[in-house]
Amino acid sequence: MPFPAFDPGAPTPLTLAIITADSSQPPAVSDESAQSTLEPGDPAGNPQPAPAPGWLQTLYSLGPLILIFIVFYFFIIGGNRRKEKERAALISSLARGDRVTTIGGIIGNVVDASGDEVVLKVDENNNTKIRITRSAVASVAKGEGR
After folding, report:
1. Beta-strand (E) ranges in 5-142?
2. C-alpha angle 34/56/22, rounded to 5°?
């Protein structure tokens, strides 16, 4: 017998069983397990465990979300924080003679690195110097410009 074709507009026969607890009668208790209550849908007569409390169900549903947040924190935020610390240490240790590249692409040798400003010698022939802030330094090559 072939299966009928699916018709999304046709009504689907679905039987639902609605079980209501009758509070006027005590629950049925068997002689073998006098201390356990039976659930109405358990034909074998095995006792059913009590449902988990509401806060525990909420924790189970939020658990994967919390785990994903922790993984993202360590891989994305933690990695960026480590790189930023390395860059800050490199910039704070600028000294005369270091060859630096700025975020604008200018390459020069450090002449003076005092305070928040750095003086770079850009051209040897014309003795061209520029003054930049330390935060504009992108990379440092230690002592190559001497």
Report:
1. 99-102, 107-114, 117-123, 128-133, 137-141
2. 40
Look up residue 141 and give its two tokens. 């090559």
List the pLDDT tens digit at each of the 146 positions of the chain. 566 676 777 776 666 666 666 556 655 555 554 444 445 555 666 667 777 677 777 777 888 888 999 998 888 888 888 888 998 898 889 999 999 999 999 999 999 998 899 999 999 899 999 999 999 999 998 765 54
> Residues for the chain: how many in total?
146
17 token code pair: 């069983």
Strands 107-114, 128-133: pairing is: unpaired
Q: Do residues 61 and 47 make contact, with C-beta atoms less than 8 angstroms apart?
A: no
The enclosing H or E element of 107 equals strand 107-114
- CATH classification (class only), 95-141: mainly beta
